[in-house]
Amino acid sequence: MAISKYKTLSQAKDSFSKSDYKNALEKFAAVLQNFPNSKEAYNGVILAEMAMSGEGGAEALFDYYEILKEEDKEQADIIMSNILQNMDGSLEKLREVFAEPLRDRLEYEDGILYKDFKAIIDSGESFKETFENIMFSTKVIITQREDFIDFLDNLIEHDFAEMALSYLENALSVYPSDKLLRKLLKKLAKGTKIEN
Questions:
Q1: How many alpha carbons lie under 13 Å from residue 168 in its C-beta half-sphere?
Q2: Rounded to the nearest 5°, which phi and psi values hold at 156?
Q3: What is the pLDDT of residues 97-117, one digit of tens each?
Q4: pTM greater than the 0.90 cutoff
Q5: For residue 119, which of 88, 90, 150, 91 has the smallest C-alpha distance?
Q6: Dihedral angle at the C-alpha atoms of 60, 56, 121, 162, nearest 10 degrees?
Q7: How far apart are CA 182 and CA 188, in angstroms?
Q8: Is there a contact between 170 and 85 (Cβ–Cβ < 8 Å)?
């Protein structure tokens, strides 16, 4: 049965605004199943999942997304996709999720929050070893700008230059004039010159 894309998106956003993330996720997912190319529904699913897993940044990102859409809807979808990809690492996993029943999808969780990852490091574990251990099995979920900067800094410090560069390029495409990101890019450039 076909659904009304705009009506369902509107209901999803309404549910999200009322902190009913489960219902918002179901509505966004329904739109995505009927309209697989809807970036708005795709981003909505990710934001609803983030909110359901208790990540603090989801509501703020949702509000930011709504403001961006008032200015330029298409550009807003692109900007939000870029932000979410930077935070999440690999969103391809979400494609697999949509092959699963909705009930399973609502319980879908496969990541470690940066603060939890940081707690492991702070307990005396090596950043490089810990990151290498989780890199292929899970993703580090970053919701705070400071954490993202700290994560990039650690990647540079521990010889993950290529990975840091790809994160930085994505982030700079969204925030081209961010001073801290530019500073990290310079640090990265210096580090790679020494190696060559």
A1: 26
A2: -65, -45
A3: 444 444 333 333 456 777 878
A4: no
A5: 150
A6: -30
A7: 10
A8: yes
